[in-house]
Every structure is written in structure tokens, then in C-alpha cells.
Model the fold of this input.
Amino acid sequence: MFAIWAMGFDISAGYLGILNFGFAGFIGLGAYTAGLMTLRLGVSPWISMLLGGIVALIAGSVVGVLTLRFRSKIIVAMFTWFFALTLQEICYAWIEVTGGIRGLITPPLPSIELPHLVIDFATRTERIPYYYLILVMFLLLFIALNFIVKSKVGLIFRAIREDEIAAEMTGVDTVRYKVLNMAISSFIAGLVGGFYCFYIGVIAPDLFSTEYTVQILTMTYVGGRGTLWGPVAASFLLVFLLELLRPLVILRWVFYGVLLIMVMIFFPKGISVIKEYIW
Done:
């Protein structure tokens, strides 16, 4: 799950050089959209998951249109951060819809019945079906994002990252491609946010917290921006280490801060530099 989010964050931070500091806002938006569509309107959780991604995509596109016309990257970072905090406050205040601070309890994904196999998602104590579902989602999105970054679109993303003015001089509509990039990143955040909603079984305003964005940002920087596979590798490493440090409670987040500082000072390319030594 975090590997997918790290790839979604990297597509903007690594390939376009844009820091979406409100990434958790799109995760939460996808989760709440999926949960509310199922709980309030009776929509199938499978469809709700996809709708969570689509709503996040639309929101990301709107945010992109409002901010990406400016070349100042700090505007994008601050605006997306404020966007996430605003959504969080709405969820706290709109108690009759979102449940406020108590959040919402969501149902499990419906079982899949095949001719000789029943995939049961209903048992909360059995997580294996969810593991294989998110694994399939990861593989499909990894292939899709690799196709994008190796295509003409990916080349344009990198050209804008390196020199936006030069890209415009060659006839590239930079705003259009930056909004497209934000839309892709937001869709991934919202889609997996919808999965999170039914996997965990509870959604609360804390999901919009900057804490989630910082975790994903750290995975991206430690792994190496602009590589896709680097943030994926870092996500497996950091989630594992974070679980080992769980007895330290809040102090374990100090580890994230120290690690991020060390990487930015001593290994700015992250663990992706390993590839250079291998090849």
C-alpha cells in the first residue's frame, strides 16, 4: 500500500519536481468518498474504490489548475498542504455525514465467488485476500507508471523539471502537463485510499494528517526521486523498520526525521545509487 503511494508521490516529486505536501489529503478524500458512497448510497465497495480515485483525480486537477500556472513550487506545496488541512477540519466539523472525530466504520470488501474458488474478504482476522489484492494493484500500477515515464509524456515531465522555460520554448504546454501529472498522482492516492477504507474498516479525520505525507515523502527521498523502484524499495524497508520500532511509540518518528536529514545531506540520490554500482 505504501509502495503504491510512494510511486504516486514520486511521479510528481521525482519526475516533475513538484512537492505535493498535501498528498494525505487526496488519500483521505479517496477513502471518505469510497466509504460514504457505500454507507450512504449503497454503492458496491468495488465501484466506490474506483470512485474514490476519480474524485481525488478531479480534486487534484482543480488544485493543479489553481496553482500550477505559477512557477513557484512553494505555492504548490503550501496550497496542497492547506487543502489537506481544510478537508480534515471539514471531516471533524461535519459530524452528521463524516462522524466527526469518531469517524466511520466501513464494511469489508464483498467476497468474490469463482467456479472453484471463493475469495472471502469478510473475515477481518484473515488479511491474505487483501494482501493479494493490493499486490495485483501494485503490479498493475507499477507497469502503468513505468509505461508513462518512458513515454513521450514522461520525457515532457522531465523536460519541465529540468528547465520549464526551455520546455515552453519548444512548444510544450507546461501547465497542461503539470496538471496531468497532478491528476495521475491524485488518482493513485485516492484509489488506494479507497482500498485503505475497506481494508482497515475505519476511517477518521486523522487520515488527512501531515504524518502520512511525511512518511510517504521520506520513502520517496530515501529511495531516490525519479526512479519509481527506489521509493518502492524504501517503502518495504521503512515500513518494516517502523514496525520494529513500534514499542518506542511517538519516538519512532524521530527516526524518520533523522533518516531524512542524513539522506538529504549524504545520499541526495537515495538508495537508487545502488543501481549505478551494480550496472
